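A favour, since you know our structure tokens better than I do. Would you make up a two-line entry for one protein for me to read? Write everything out right here, beneath this request.
=====
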Amino acid sequence: MIAKKETRCLLLKTAQRLLGHEPTSQEETRWRLLQAAAEVFAEVGYHAATTREICKRAEVNLASIHYYYGDKAELYREVFRLPFLSECNVFATLDIARVSLQEALHSFYSWLFPADAEEDPMRRLFMRLHAREEAEPSGVLGDAMVQAFRPNHEKVQALLCREFGLKNPDVEVDRLTFAVIGLATAYFHNRMAVENFVPHLLGGPKAMEKMAERMVDYAVALIEAERVRRAAATGGKK
């Protein structure tokens, strides 16, 4: 019970920072529902989770989910959007015009491989949620996560355009964007395999820090290879 209270307080603090003020009664109810839903979905999965249990844990009346989110499916999708909030993702608000390529990439990969993942109760919940969704697909996420990730994708695209002096991405930048992002997301789409085959890769703060560092190295190598290819294609002219 203590752990749940600490987690809920953490989420409400996040809400306060995002809102810029102390949450109103209605705003607090929304965030308490999100917190309770995250806990219940992580524990029993989407299909076994009941709106009654979620509302009971959030300490709100049973009609609250319908009032704030419409139905259980939309509440589930909203929970999966939480990690993409700017409060949780420094890269989303990063001014790429003011940082080096390595700094921008490190910000992106550190968001995906946070050193404090095991200490942060919300991150632990998200990791459990993703693992359960992978093992027991809910069938209701649709493109919710794709749309939530879009700002990150577009920022990586913009970073690559900056590196190659382009105003808009061309097809090669599109390919490279997916390659740079895919270096990291492959570990999440295959999380169960990673945990079974090589658990030490993502086990503990040092491993997570090292993973982010290596992702930067690999991404820079890919970007430099594309820079060389472009130079060769134009006869060495910029």
The chain is about 70% helix and 0% strand. Confidence is low (pLDDT under 50) at residues 1-8.
